[in-house]
Amino acid sequence: DIQMTQSPSSLSASVGDRVTITCQASQDISNSLNWYQQKPGKAPKLLIYDESNLETGVPSRFSGSGSGTHFTFTIISLQPEDIATYYCQQYDNLPYTFGQGTKLDIK
Amino acid sequence: QAQLVQSGSELKKPGASVKVSCKASGYTFTISTLNWVRQAPGQGLEWMARINPNTGNPTFAQAFTGRFVFSLDKSVSTAYLQISSLRAEDTAVYYCARSGFYSGAFDLWGQGTVVTVSS
Fold first, then answer.
1. Residues of B in Cβ contact (< 8 Å) with A51
2. Nearest Cβ partner of A46 from B44, B95, B106?
3. A36–B45 C-beta distance less than 8 A
4. Measured between beta carbons, which residues in chain B are less than 8 angstroms from residue A7?
5. C-alpha angle A102/A38/B72, rounded to 5°?
6. What is the pLDDT of residues B36-64, one digit of tens each?
7. How confident is the model over A64-102, as pLDDT tens digits?
8. Nearest-CA distance from A100 to chain B in Å?
């Protein structure tokens, strides 16, 4: 199975800050990488698909980049409503696998 | 609008069985794949399986063989997850989620079904 390693596991930032989360795959997954946001008690929500494509309706302050084994998720200006846990997910090989999550809160 | 609506919370005793449903509406059921994702209390997301509505054949992660059955009924646009011989470690939220046939992006999620296994 492909292992997805996310860092950091938790992060505190201030409103307006630039926030970056990284995801490392245990083997080359090309651009087969998605990012999700999950708020407490809610289902995950797709934010970024195919490494850098913004899902319809998702604010442009969210972005993704990378390829191969190293990927980055960025919030360019953190908003209070962005408090959530974020997950990366690869779909290059079955079984699909997720990173362990990054819990983001407001400093 | 497109949505996936799951059945309600379940409280089961160890050794019992449970069947969770996921009803699709607002889109053509047969043009997408249905996936199941597990989230244990306080833990991350774990992909369990996907099922092609046209063939009914599931593909699943190794951890979900044996006690787990993934099925669907195309006539009512509903997917099912059945777990038998329940154990305490099956306690989790189970989500269904839609993806394309060639895409692993889960763009539509059910609200989740909480399954609690306790004596």
1. none
2. B106
3. yes
4. none
5. 125
6. 999 999 999 999 999 999 988 999 999 99
7. 999 899 999 999 999 999 999 999 999 999 999 999 999
8. 6
